[in-house]
Amino acid sequence: MYGSHETGSPYAPHTDENAAAMLETIGAESIGELFDIPESVRFDGEFGIDARTERETRRLVEGILARNDDQVELLGRGHYGYYVPSLVDHLADRSEFLTSYTQYQPETSQGFLQALFEYQSLLVELTGLGVANCSMYDAATALGEAATLADRARSVSGTRVLVPDILREGRRETLQNYVAGTDLAIEEYPTRESTVDLAGLEERVDDDCVMVYAETPTVRGAVEERLEEVGDLASGAGALFVLGSDPVALSLLQRPADVGADVVVGDASVLGLGTSYGMGLGLFATREKHLRQVPGRLVGASEDSRDRRAYTLTLQTREQHIRRERATSNICTNQAWVALRSAIHAAGLGPDGLAELAARGVRRAESVAERVDGIDGLTAPVDDRRLFREFVVRTERDADALRADLGDRGFAVHALSADEIQCCVAGATDGEIDGFLAALEEVTR
Amino acid sequence: MRYDQARWTRNGEYEPLLAEKDLTRVEIRDTEGETGEESGSAEGDVTTVESPLPDELTRDELALPGLSEPELARHYTRLSQMTYAITTGPYPLGSCTMKYNPTFTEDVAALPDAAVHPDRPAESVQGTLELCYRLQDYLARIGGMDAVTLQPPAGAAGEFVGIRVASAYHEANGDERSEVIVPESAHGTNFATAALGGYDVVSLPSDEAGRVDLGALEAALSEETAALMLTNPNTLGLFERDIEEIARMVHDVGGLLYYDGANLNALLGRARPGDMGFDVMHYNVHKTFATPHGGGGPGAGPVGVSEELASFLPAPRVREAGGESADPEGEPTYERFDPPETIGKVHGYEGNWLVLLKAFAYIARLGDEGLADASAKAVLNANYLAERIEYEVPYGPFHHEFVASAGDQDAADVAKRMLDYGVHPPTTKWPEIVGEALMTEPTEVESKASLDQLAEAFNTVASEATETLETAPERTAAGRIDQTTAARTPRLSWHALGE
Asked: Which SUPFAM superfamilies match (chain A) (predicted)?
């Protein structure tokens, strides 16, 4: 099928005759002549990478990935394996969506722009905040961007960013990198029962704080019950209240705008992507007063020459390709296609499906925790809090050994410390949960 | 060639929003203890969802579209029809490397074995780790680098890693530096990234030939220089022929040389950044290695560094396991490790894994010869197209892209009119070194016939009257969109449309 260029790129359609004719038009003898590279830096070696047929390449990758153990994952802590309906794959994989780029020419990109506008609208509804951008990379980088927004916001001054002591390492380190070029310093505040310790937070909040960050549910699966007070503490000190959550949780839990959140960040790929080794979709929403400080791309409605409503990227003077070193962020390529997937998944569920999915996350986490608690040698949940999607278990056996034994039986859980494991029920079927509980009984015996 | 894009209209407007097709309001209520009420029951127009949590921990209601699967299939299919893509036609957006994206890489990314959680222990995800290891190795060879991280989720994120690594390197040497030098013609992300990293940006003018002005560089360099960020070939498509001298000058003041990989598609198999003296580089796998651009992303921006900088890379990286964890059967096993002086993580997990997987498949498919051929044909195509179009193309000799000038015409209007001829226009009005710039990168995937069609589009527009250009496009789904209104009265969600 690839004719005479079987030793070249299969995706370069030139015949030898074409290439010769093109060279003649250019007035060159050979393609090599077109490269204006000094002799001293020319590469005349080999990469040593063999070319393969499509079939061979697929087999190669299949063979490598087959080395992954087939396990039922009861894993969460920020990355969740919700079932993604087939419809999402088939619609998002339409090549017009998959193989277009940033909508620099809105007139010929109305479809994708509308889909992103709808994604932004979904987040506005979920958060109650007036502005949502059309994606950051993931929750960790969105958190970093929130800190730099807090640093720029004219209403705020100071140098301290407060985060919970249970914040996931990846998020904390990413945040640290984002603020490395500013005067901001990250400090931890204590937690109790895997949620904010209000007294501990109050001790640390002062006029020098630019931002207080909290998450609901927390990384240990607990629902925060006193967010309004966290918001009051932050605003009392003139700091921004940044709340971490996700679209499934937000379908049921308190609306961020109602608890005083100034910015909402999180991972929106809980919808639409499924388990993907941590690939994400950074959710970023904020109040309208911070509109000019928002990082990333925004889709807005306008009118076209036919006086009809049409969509376009807007407020681009915030962005790097216009504002350069004074841009609100360095982001260019984002996660637009994941946002599309997330929006399709949400639309497929509808508001009742979304809220039900969230409610089920509470019911299942709490009922499975209760069943785990019935097993000798295990205590669950560890925290006296309402649970969402996942929970921590205290174990008399060494947690790492327990995790390894569960792994041998085909179940993956988190080992948090010597005596704690964490289990997530977001993606598991009822049958898998039953199998997991049976395996837990075996390994604790 | 003439193009009429699909255009769905209803009641004098284009395809309605999801929320205009249906908006269902659900009430969320704690009904625990109550009897006789089923979850999801409807009371009049309002559906109630039964909450296991008390009312004070939940929202009151949620109003979103509630459409059926067939309705959604039509909605999104129509939206796709109103979206121009590389599978629709030529997409010569300069510096974006809009290659055709091989379909088989989608199948590879959809393999069930690829869907693993990032917190799985190394021993249970050997396949994923092996693939990461092999891709690190491929990229190191292609760039002439010693060590690679796959974590940065996009090109700009890769730049940020480069700048953070440079900071860590200088700090480790007890050497605080305050400036990053960026050529005026560089990608906007370079300036923004350097600023995000806390550096003052020193802008470097080009010389008359469109390359780095060595005199200006000499003047800009000092003990304060943390790094020079450079794209090679630059945004005019010109190879920086003095690259070795530039590297020597930067290194002489103790600075690092950063390679912006956006234009690497010009050089595969012909030259490697590592051999030119670059210390750190990023790869744009969504450009060079043909992973789909997805309407703006996701991409991936792995970073390669020289041996000297390897210990600063983000954690974790993947290596072959030695000692006790090695497999006695001889099959290599892989482990994660934290580089000793790591800057820490720049993404919550390991970056855009599914994109990296597609890039691996592309590289493994093409091999040495395919990769070199991709660059050869990309350069052939750019040179051929530049020859065929009637707009002036200053500077040269260029490689994978060129910047034409629309002359007396407005480049933005030229772009709008080109849409009517079934081609995506070039990047416009940038770099500013060329007036009314049309920055054009056809990539290797266009055939001669396709390039002829592109040239015809350019040349037809070049001969058209100003008023034709100003009122274009006419054949796309929407007509010319009013940017001023969009920015002055931001309406950023369907909630804002009634205002």
From this structure: PLP-dependent transferases
